[in-house]
Amino acid sequence: xxxxxxxxxxxxxxxxxxxxxxxxxxxxxxxxxxxxxxxxxxxxxxxxxxxxxxxxxxxxxxxxxxxxxxxxxxxxxxxxxxxxxxxxxxxxxxxxxxxxxxxxxxxxxxxxxxxxxxxxxxxxxxxxxxxxxxxxxxxxxxxxxxxxxxxxxxxxxxxxxxxxxxxxxxxxxxxxxxxxxxxxx
Length: 185
Hints:
The protein is α+β, with helices and mostly antiparallel strands. The chain is built from 3 helices and 11 strands. Helices cover 27% and strands 28% of the residues.
């Protein structure tokens, strides 16, 4: 029995340290988790925020999704991970369930082709991690898709609902304040 317990503890110990071997890191080193799941891509989504949200809801099947705020321009800071072609972007305190990447023009000279690419955020929720070199966008001829060709990122999640315990504590606090006030009169 003691031998089985020792073996079990050794296996658990090794698994704790082995799990980080599958994670990607950015300089620091900061663990950003594994690459997020490519969901779907389209070149026919409208360019408004409402169009992007409607498309994300349609593709994910989650009608409770809302945009958590578009990240663009200087706020969009991609960091290359320790795996070539894989990039990470920090969502800060946001923890989106899905995020959309919109590309700029990725077509050969003389034509225009832009993509909306939806990812499911699966590992480290406050990081978006994408392997751009592994994307197959409907077999299109794409010229140099890299982070420099990304127009913006739009994270999507559900509106957080307060926990019942928090609401109970607030209610008991208000009842307590009312009781103290009544005793003073």
